[in-house]
Design goal:
2 strands, mainly alpha
């Protein structure tokens, strides 16, 4: 095993975070409507990172994750809730329901008009993330050494039960969805790379370049091919999950030990803030700059302006919530 594996920052993963975040942003733009697979890449990354950080230090794991994700999410939830009360016409299919507010705060999935999503719509992915963190926490409590096997087994059992038992319950359906398997992809990637990374350090361009090009081709195909119609409808962990797994592994190998331009790493750093904030900015863009979803000069100019606005808002949010507040809460709660 590469002794430096646990003492390095993976710029390539931060770069991939940024690519995934922008994919989701573009997916919500009316005239693009593609890029939802960014979520699947995020889940693969999460599976890898959770195994990686718990190998370094598993103490207070669940609380660290809550401190990492909850403050900004709670802030966006409260702002949205107030917005629904003041301007309900801007929030179709969402109401200012106190019960829904509590469920959102506690990451409990619930159905709104047949769609399982919290008050902050893009927060549905955080419900999966927090549930995965809970599974990892349980796995660590059972055996830190075998946490990857235990977590994967728990997920597979849940998905199996979800496929063969029709509960009719939104909560059960959500937590047993096959998309959970994408976290296993990340876990598998971790188990591969923690042992194989010793071979990556001395790779030359003749090896790195083809691997990187494979990632680019896989990423490009996700934009070009309508996988939902061509392949297996309803099996997201296959149609998006497997390409996401390929992309993650190729980017990780190709970029291992390479220091990328700081701006790319920085965009990865602020990707969580951009992800949570973008939906509101893009909704305004769709309403006033691209109401008919047509591709024209106005739509393109607006899309560029909206993307810049998302980056700026994400940068401010990252500085306030993910750095200052995160450090403050860690010092107050964990020490």
């Amino acid at each position: 095993m590469d002794n430096g594996f646990y003492n390095r920052r993976f710029d390539s993963i931060q770069f991939l975070r940024a690519a995934a975040a922008f994919s989701v942003i573009f997916n919500h733009m009316a005239f693009i409507g593609k890029g939802a697979f960014g979520v699947d890449i995020f889940f693969c990354i999460s599976g890898f990172i959770m195994m990686y950080v718990t190998e370094i230090d598993a103490r207070n794991f669940l609380m660290k994750r809550i401190i990492r994700l909850a403050p900004l999410y709670y802030f966006m939830t409260i702002i949205t809730f107030i917005g629904i009360i003041i301007m309900p016409q801007l929030f179709d299919k969402t109401t200012a329901n106190p019960v829904m507010l509590l469920k959102t705060i506690f990451f409990i999935p619930y159905s709104i008009n047949g769609v399982i999503q919290p008050i902050v719509r893009v927060g549905w992915t955080l419900n999966y993330e927090m549930f995965f963190y809970f599974i990892v926490w349980i796995s660590i409590r059972i055996s830190k050494k075998y946490r990857s096997v235990i977590a994967s087994f728990i997920i597979l059992v849940l998905v199996f039960l979800g496929k063969f038992i029709d509960s009719g319950n939104a909560l059960a359906d959500f937590w047993t969805d096959s998309i959970m398997i994408e976290f296993i992809y990340g876990i598998l990637a971790y188990e591969i790379h923690r042992k194989a990374s010793v071979y990556y350090k001395n790779m030359n361009v003749s090896v790195r370049l083809p691997v990187f090009l494979l990632a680019v081709c896989s990423f490009s195909l996700l934009w070009i091919v309508n996988y939902d119609k061509v392949f297996f409808h309803g099996f997201r962990f296959i149609i998006y999950g497997i390409p996401a797994f390929i992309i993650f592994n190729c980017i990780f190998i190709a970029g291992y030990g390479i220091k990328l331009p700081s701006v790319l790493v920085w965009l990865g750093d602020i990707s969580y803030s951009m992800y949570l904030i973008h939906y509101f900015i893009i909704r305004l863009y769709n309403r006033y700059m691209c109401p008919d979803g047509a591709l024209d000069g106005r739509a393109v100019f607006g899309a560029i302006a909206a993307t810049v606005a998302v980056i700026c808002a994400g940068a401010v949010s990252y500085a306030l919530f993910e750095k200052k507040l995160n450090i403050y809460l860690r010092n107050k709660i964990l020490h």
